[in-house]
Amino acid sequence: MEPTLFSKIIDREIPADIVYEDDEVLAFNDIDPKAPTHILIIPKKAIATLNDIEEGDLALIGRLQYTAAKLAKELGFAEEGYRVVMNCNEAGGQSVYHIHMHLLGGRRMQWPPG
């Protein structure tokens, strides 16, 4: 996989407003937020799309979900509610080919998304 915007953020080649980091996961504020809180949660392992997840990645994908819930609690909107979104490929809205989760909170979410 060629370097992506996210791999450059992981490698600190591009700055980001990092809100959480551990050995496997990095989370940072989205530069084009769609909600009062809009955090991108990414694995440090390069995986291009949801279609590329392998069985050995299951714990890592669970860690992304766990991180989203943890951040929602820490930021005070877990009980009120929040949205977690992962897009896959161009028609699914994916623009960076390094899987990532959007954590959106701080306002009532619409359905369908708008």
From TrEMBL:
Xref: PROSITE patterns: HIT_1, HIT_2
Any one GO MF term held by the record is:
catalytic activity
Q: Which CDD domains match?
A: PKCI_related (cd01276)
Renumbered to this chain, motif Histidine triad motif spans: 98-102
Query: According to the lineage, what is the superkingdom?
Result: Bacteria
Query: Where would I find the HIT domain in this sequence?
Result: 5-114
Q: Any idea which residues are catalytic in this one?
A: 100 (tele-amp-histidine intermediate)
Which SUPFAM superfamilies does UniProt cross-reference here?
Answer: HIT-like
Q: Which Pfam families match?
A: HIT
Under InterPro entries, the record lists: Histidine_triad_CS (IPR019808), Histidine_triad_HIT (IPR001310), HIT-like (IPR011146), HIT-like_sf (IPR036265)
Q: Which PANTHER family did the record assign?
A: HISTIDINE TRIAD HIT PROTEIN
Q: Please identify the protein, giving its name as recorded.
A: Histidine triad nucleotide-binding protein
Q: Which organism is it from?
A: Salinicola corii
